[in-house]
Amino acid sequence: MRRKSLSTVVFEDLLEQIRAGRLSPGAQLPTEAELCELFAVSRTVVREAVARLRSEGLVIPRQGKGVFVSEAPPGSFAIPEQDLHALPQTIALLELRLGVEVEAAGLCAERCSGAEAIAIRDEMERVDAGHPDPAETRIHYDYDFHLMIARGARNPQIVDFLTYLRGQLAPRLQLGYILLPALKDDYFDRIHAEHRAIVAAILRHDPDAARVAMRLHLTNSLERLRALARAVGQGADMPSA
Q: How many separate domains does the chain show?
């Protein structure tokens, strides 16, 4: 049986408190520091759990005050835990992510400042220079780069949604692109070329080019995952650690 991620444990505990009425509508959640201490987890784990509650309409933030249980009925969007363990469902989620991130890239090119565009370029260089040693499991994990682009879009709903997906998809995607040594250099060269095209469009503040470049990058990522699905069988579970 697969072990739940820490963010899922925190999310489910808070969800149960909300459903049981121990955290009633309008009640304030404990502070981030208090939740870290309560669950003995990092701030990143707490933020991912709270972002998931927000994405499901269960809590709302109030500027300068904290996060409160929503008084309105929550929306219906949720990703069942079991859907995260099979490739077809994971591919479907990536298709959803593609639609959101293509527009996010265009909005980022329109709205981000010059300093933010340079910071996105710097993050690309950091991520692409930091891939693992050839002797170890070879993955490419660039979600922080994508989140920076989402922040540049000036749309907090996009950031919340992608932060939520990060907590759900990251454990699966980190194992999705295991490469043979002979293919490693070509793989990273192609990823970096795709990233460069996205960043170049953002630096030029060219939204149409940014959308095209992001669509190409994520479409290629989907094709790589579909190739993995074909290799292991369409209904197979995602590889686990």
A: 2
User: Could you tell me where the DSSP H helices lie in the chain?
Assistant: 6-20, 32-39, 43-55, 87-111, 114-129, 143-152, 156-173, 181-203, 207-232
Query: Are residue 143 and residue 29 in the same domain, yes or no?
Result: no
Which CATH number does the domain housing residue 145 bear?
1.20.120.530
How far is CA 152 from each of CA 59, 100, 164, 177, 192, rounded to the nearest angstrom?
Answer: 24, 14, 17, 27, 20
Residues 95 and 145 in one domain: yes
Q: Which domain holds residue 34?
A: 6-69
User: What tens digit of pLDDT does each residue of 143-167 get?
Assistant: 889 989 999 999 988 887 887 776 5
Judge whether 52 and 166 are in contact, CB under 8 Å.
Answer: no
Among 10-19, 153-162, 193-202, 219-228, the minimum mean pLDDT is found in 219-228
Beta bridge partners of 66: 62
Three-state DSSP class for 141? coil
